[in-house]
Amino acid sequence: MAQQRIVITGVGLAAPNGDNLPEFRSALLEGRSGVSMIETRYMPPVPAGVCNFDQFKHQSKKASRRGTRAGAISIYCANEAVADAGYDMKSNRADRVGVFIGITEHGNVETENEVHNISQYNYDVKFWTHHHNPRTVANNPAGEVTLNMGITGPHLCLGAACAAGNIGLIYGVQMLRLDEVDMAIAGGVSESIHTFGIFASFQSQNALASHEDPTKASRPFDRDRNGIVVAEGGALYVLERLDDAIARGAKIYGEIAGYAYNSDASDFVLPNPTRQAECMKLALSRAKMKPSDIDILNTHGTGTGQGDQNECEAIREVFDGCYRLSINNTKSFIGHSMGAAGALELAGNLPSFDDGYVHPTINLDNIDPKCDLPNLVLDKPRHLGQVDAIINNSFGMLGINSVVIVKRFVK
């Protein structure tokens, strides 16, 4: 089972500039940002990536009132992914389906809301909701999916900071190869824009982006970048063993060729380019690929000074001399969707296997010399003809790094 090939057969997503993969891909190819100004408690308006999916498409208003925003995003993405995969839940064993969702954090939104609510009543806790505990447990988003879809197999959320979207996918692959499940719903979600704490914290670190035009606020690698644009969103995938996918005649988006995750063990927030390079090299080794085999590299680049520079240093170490490689950045369009970032950014690049295009990076008007990668795709899509392999970087606080490689499916 450890050698089983794992493929992607369904994609469901909610992004600030698209409610499904075709919409999201079109926005990326057309250069349309999903960032706007929002109001948040205790602060002036801030730029953020806000999703506009139909929250009630797959759940009732009553159920949504009991649940969370992260749960609503997860339910939407999971149902969309399963429908996209053509997977008949009624004809398959519910106990052989698993839900594995990467998150940056969970519970802050609900706790902040309840503290604010009882502050209107002199902090009388009798006004505190009795739904608080199930809303704030760490497994909530994945658990809400199982309740909504009648899934009785394993579920959990994987707390991995901003590396979590990739790690949700990695865990799904591992559970399939362990034969714990026959189908995995895996990826990442984020509700971060609904907690003022994340904005306040980035502001206190001088790491919160600002710009008079919110669509230009997220500008990784640009000389004038000034921080992170916080975003919400989600992307969940249906993962299956290749034999099972072929047996049911499923369409296949791509094959998970390799992956890796490691730890910097060097700083709470500053990334370590040596460890990031090691993570990319390990993923390539597991995929039995050389750096020159990769066609597209989706960067993590968040728009912070040191973070962007360190990732570029790591990329140069691994991919020096790889002239066919094209490099892009998805956060320039949607901001940083935290636990969803890796999964959403991979989704934005998956259609390259079909259309042969690399979506561009936007808002990169004056490149920082320390971020000057020779193969960055800027402003307009680049047509490569055939795309065979994509590498997806996601790195997070406390020094957690994750890399996923997806290749074109070939029997």
CATH superfamily of the largest domain: Thiolase/Chalcone synthase
Question: How many structural domains?
Answer: 2
Lateral arrangement of strands in the main beta sheet: 5-4-6-8-1-9-15-14-10-11
The share of residues in helices is: 25-40%
Sequence stretches where pLDDT stays below 50 over 5 or more residues = none
Overall mean confidence score, pLDDT: 97
Number of helices: 14
The strand count comes to 15
Query: Hey, roughly how much beta strand do the residues contain?
Result: 15-25%
> What's the order of the H and E elements?
EHEEHHEHHHEHEHEEHEHEHEHHHEEEE
Q: How far apart are the termini? A: 18 Å
Q: Could you describe the largest sheet, including whether it forms a barrel?
A: 10 strands, mixed
Structural class: alpha/beta
Identify the CATH architecture of the largest domain: 3-Layer(aba) Sandwich
CATH domain class name of the largest domain: Alpha Beta
The rough form would be described as globular
SSE layout and pairings?
Layout: E1 6-14, H1 21-30, E2 35-40, E3 43-49, H2 61-66, H3 69-85, E4 97-103, H4 108-119, H5 132-136, H6 140-149, E5 155-159, H7 164-177, E6 183-190, H8 196-204, E7 230-231, E8 233-241, H9 242-247, E9 254-263, H10 273-286, E10 296-298, H11 305-319, E11 326-328, H12 331-334, H13 341-349, H14 352-355, E12 357-358, E13 382-383, E14 389-396, E15 400-407
Parallel strand pairs: 3-7, 4-5, 4-6, 10-11, 10-14
Antiparallel strand pairs: 1-8, 1-9, 2-3, 6-8, 9-15, 12-13, 14-15
Helix pairs in contact: 3-6, 7-13, 10-11
